[in-house]
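FORM 12-B: Structure-to-Sequence Request
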């Protein structure tokens, strides 16, 4: 199949917290992406500041999305919550012959992307979900652990941050995931478990931390990357927070009530701003992975830049890989599609 020439590429959700960071860095690198989203005034302000083209459209009508993708060769989708937004954009890209990338970490979104492999190959496009901090560094960790222990049957991944601020989009995603509790991979199948199901201590590069299981994207991704059938993902938890979360279990189902969810989303949009520039430059993320079989155990520890800063770098690495035609058509995990040596050598990444 001849290489697809990409004359223009698009950032959808360009005026969101992460989208703005991606736009700023893309322009610094010499790119001229088309900015897109549903709010015309915010797009006009952002596009005017950077002197970039823009397109206004929402994701409620498939025909309108396809029209808006005319002349576009690649979309980097940054508008969460992806449980609501990923499917219409991904479908339009597949129908229109446009490469699709997103920065999701939601298990269901990731699984649906992998189911598009045959269709993406037929359309001659690449689909990669999770090209941000969710789930690039943990997927790289899973890949390296599989290399170190090819017969591994169990995989544990854990991460912790030196800060704690999240963006409005991340906050809304966390809200939508609460009613589902937790998820793990058991014997190759994704199964539901209670909120904060298991806890244990992990050694990170900076210090040991108590962690709890969460429904992180690697429950989907790491299985497709490694074939390991038993996967749990943990995040660091503050003292006392674990017991509080477990007491919250009976109330989590209330978050399925639409009026309450709508009210909480409005509060999140007003109150959460994401980490400031100083925090993005100074804070660090710490990751630990453990792979084991019946007789052996291998562990790898990693340090990366702050999560949103890392997302900008990894997402643009994915964009530039597709612009350079380095990925064959199909649907992939990040470690399947991207150069793992480049991921290991990103600024601020340390692997022990």
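FORM 12-B RESPONSE
SEQUENCE OUT:
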């Amino acid at each position: 199949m001849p290489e697809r020439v990409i004359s223009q590429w698009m950032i959808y959700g360009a005026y969101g917290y992460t989208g703005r960071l991606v736009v700023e860095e893309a322009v610094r690198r010499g790119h001229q992406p088309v900015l897109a989203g549903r709010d015309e005034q915010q797009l006009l302000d952002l596009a005017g500041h950077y002197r970039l083209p823009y397109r206004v459209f929402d994701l409620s009508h498939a025909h309108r999305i396809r029209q808006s993708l005319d002349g576009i060769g690649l979309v980097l989708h940054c508008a969460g919550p992806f449980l609501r937004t990923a499917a219409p954009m991904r479908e339009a890209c597949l129908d229109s012959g446009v490469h699709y990338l997103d920065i999701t970490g939601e298990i269901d979104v990731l699984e649906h992307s992998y189911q598009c492999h045959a269709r993406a190959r037929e359309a001659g496009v690449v689909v990669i979900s999770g090209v941000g901090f969710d789930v690039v560094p943990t997927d790289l960790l899973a890949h390296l652990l599989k290399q170190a222990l090819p017969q591994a049957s169990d995989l544990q991944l854990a991460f912790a941050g030196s800060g704690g601020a999240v963006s409005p989009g991340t906050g809304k995603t966390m809200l939508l995931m609460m009613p589902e509790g937790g998820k793990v991979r058991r014997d190759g199948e994704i199964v539901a478990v209670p909120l904060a199901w298991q806890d244990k201590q992990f050694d990170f590069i900076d210090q040991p931390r108590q962690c709890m299981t969460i429904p992180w994207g690697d429950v989907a991704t790491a299985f497709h990357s490694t074939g390991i059938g038993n996967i749990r993902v943990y995040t660091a938890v503050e003292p006392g927070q674990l017991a509080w979360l477990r007491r919250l279990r009976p109330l989590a189902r209330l978050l399925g009530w639409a009026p309450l969810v709508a009210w909480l989303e409005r509060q999140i949009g007003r109150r959460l701003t994401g980490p400031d520039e100083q925090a993005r430059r100074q804070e660090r993320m710490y990751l630990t992975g453990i792979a084991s079989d019946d007789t052996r155990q291998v562990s790898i520890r990693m340090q990366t830049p702050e999560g949103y800063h890392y997302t900008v770098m990894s997402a643009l690495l994915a964009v530039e890989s597709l612009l350079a035609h380095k990925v064959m058509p199909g649907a992939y995990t990040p470690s399947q599609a991207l150069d793992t040596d480049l991921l290991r050598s990103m600024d601020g990444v340390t692997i022990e």
